[in-house]
Amino acid sequence: MTILISIFVLVLVLLCYVAVTARTTNRRVLAVVGIFLLQFITFVWIQVLARAASSVVDQGLQAMSAGAFFYQIRPLLGLSILVCAALVIVTFCTRKPAVVEDAVEPERYSITLRVIHPHRRHEEIAAVVDLKLVHGQTAGEPRKSNRGETLGGAYKETIAAFALSDRVEGHFVDGVRNAVELIQVRREYLRDVVKSGGRLMLYIGVFVDDHVGFSLDRALLGALSSLDVELGVEVYAG
């Protein structure tokens, strides 16, 4: 029994560590479920010992006294108490404080500038904007997959997408500020794109392990508005 108790305690310590330190909610939940299962196994073990003792009495063999039975299951009771204490510790240690902007862990983000126009060629836009082009399509041309296969039909609008940041670690709000500076350098041409029926969009992909919170100050929102830039954000968790 000593070896089994030692194994149970080691498993309990490991599960508690995962439940407290895991960065994703799913892992913490799985660890807590494991602790509950460990508690369940402990109670089942006690029941098995109790029935075994009862069977000995029923067969007329030497009866096990209450004190002797308690001595037999004392390690299991101690393990049960440890499990309950672990659940309390895990509950308090995994409680999240109110989100404070400076306390939010840095995430990874990618930022793409999308220039959308009803008829201009994406090659023309790419030549003037002079940034890393990651996707280009021109209105009226046949639709194609990323592998160059024809999909049927034609593009309804021109899109030139430029990578400004690619899975950079940090707060994406800082990446937006840097993107605004890059757009301001090219504002004359991009403003002409908007005036002729086009649109500008900063598309941001945020990659996080858990929760995320952010805010854009009025100055940054004002800068985006003055540049006629729309903002799109998509969060990828896990």
Describe the structure.
By secondary structure, this protein is of the alpha+beta class. The chain folds into two domains: 2-93; 101-143 and 154-237, no CATH class. It is built from seven helices and seven strands, in the order H-H-H-E-H-E-E-E-E-H-H-E-H-E. The protein has helices spanning 2-21, 25-58, 66-93, 122-129, 172-185, 187-195, 218-226, and strands spanning 107-117, 133-137, 142-144, 150-154, 158-170, 199-208, 229-237. A five-stranded mixed sheet has the order 2-5-1-6-7. A hairpin with a 5-residue loop joins strand 3 (142-144) and strand 4. Helix 1 runs antiparallel to helix 2 (25-58). The longest helix is centred in the first third of the chain and has 34 residues, at 25-58. It is elongated, with a radius of gyration of 31 Å. Residues 57-63 and 96-104 have low confidence and may be disordered.
Strand-helix topology:
Blueprint: H1 2-21, H2 25-58, H3 66-93, E1 107-117, H4 122-129, E2 133-137, E3 142-144, E4 150-154, E5 158-170, H5 172-185, H6 187-195, E6 199-208, H7 218-226, E7 229-237
Parallel strand pairs: 6-7
Antiparallel strand pairs: 1-5, 1-6, 2-5, 3-4
What's this entry about, in short?
The chain is of the alpha+beta class and 238 residues long. It has helices at residues 2-21, 25-58, 66-93, 122-129, 172-185, 187-195, 218-226; strands at residues 107-117, 133-137, 142-144, 150-154, 158-170, 199-208, 229-237.
